[in-house]
Design brief:
MetI-like fold; mainly alpha
């Protein structure tokens, strides 16, 4: 089976970011919290490969630790969306046209009416800013996404012969949903999960940019951009580096999502 170019490029970029995040647990060039004011706003050099920020902190070290912050927030948020959204989507598809289907889908519409940033502001107003609240906000927004994808993929499957055979065999509706329907929508969920993961990276950066994400001293790409916005003219590299990290990470995940869609969708494989 031939892998698409987008899948290979996306997988390489995503693997590089993941490797950088994992490496930061064992090694960084400097401590990401170590400040050295005399060395502030240095350009890239042999001592500091990506330069230093306005507090003299090593930007490479901060980007490496910021990678694991962004990945952790997005990964847990997507996990929340899958854990809650998939069962809701399966239930809605199994009870299509009933009050349960209507309640679930109208609840999804209600959540879609409030973007993750608005939800984060509401949560922050109650519990205060932080990475945990960012995870909750992004996770809540992911629930209706996975519910809709699961329901859409499952609806046509309920009319297939293998589902009818399972009904004749006496299997219950929940059992059919998890044993026969869920495996057949997994490819859709994998592709959507990749896309939502990239959107989670962007959402975490946006929340941190406005001060609602991970709090100091934990590095975050979004907060690095916020700190750099008043010093772009003096040291453009302190904004360029975290900005490129976000762009390359999201690009890699989107390319990988497109490649996985081409790989897992049999209709696209036949066309090719």
């Amino acid at each position: 089976m031939r892998l698409s170019r987008s899948l290979i490029i996306g997988a390489v970029l995503s693997a590089a970011v993941l490797a950088m995040a994992l490496l930061s647990f064992a090694w960084t060039p400097y401590s990401h919290t170590a400040m050295n004011i005399p060395d502030k706003l240095q350009t890239p050099s042999a001592a500091h490969w990506l330069g230093t920020d306005h507090f003299g902190r090593d930007i490479l070290s901060m980007v490496m630790v910021g990678a694991r912050t962004s990945i952790a927030v997005a990964l847990v948020a997507v996990g929340i969306g899958i854990a809650l959204g998939v069962p809701l989507g399966l239930a809605a598809a199994a009870r299509r046209g009933t009050w349960l289907d209507e309640v679930i889908m109208r609840g999804n519409d209600l959540i879609f009416a409030f973007p993750s940033l608005v939800i984060a502001i509401l949560i922050t107003a109650i519990f205060g800013p932080g990475a945990v609240n960012a995870i909750i906000a992004i996770g809540i927004f992911n629930i209706p996404v996975f519910a809709r994808v699961t329901r859409g993929g499952a609806l046509s499957l309920w009319e297939r012969e293998f589902v009818m055979a399972a009904r004749v065999a006496g299997k219950s509706t929940p059992r059919i949903s998890f044993e026969h329907i869920l495996p057949n929508v997994t490819n859709l969920l994998i592709v959507q999960g990749t896309i939502q993961f990239s959107l989670g990276i962007l959402a975490e950066a946006a929340l941190s940019y406005v001060g609602l994400g991970a709090q100091p001293p934990t590095p975050s790409w979004g907060r690095m951009l916020a700190d750099a916005q008043t010093m772009v003219a003096l040291a453009p590299h302190i904004a360029l580096v975290p900005g490129l990290a976000i762009v390359l990470t999201v690009l890699g995940l989107n390319l990988m999502g497109d490649g996985l869609r081409d790989l897992l969708d049999p209709r696209i494989r036949v066309q090719r």
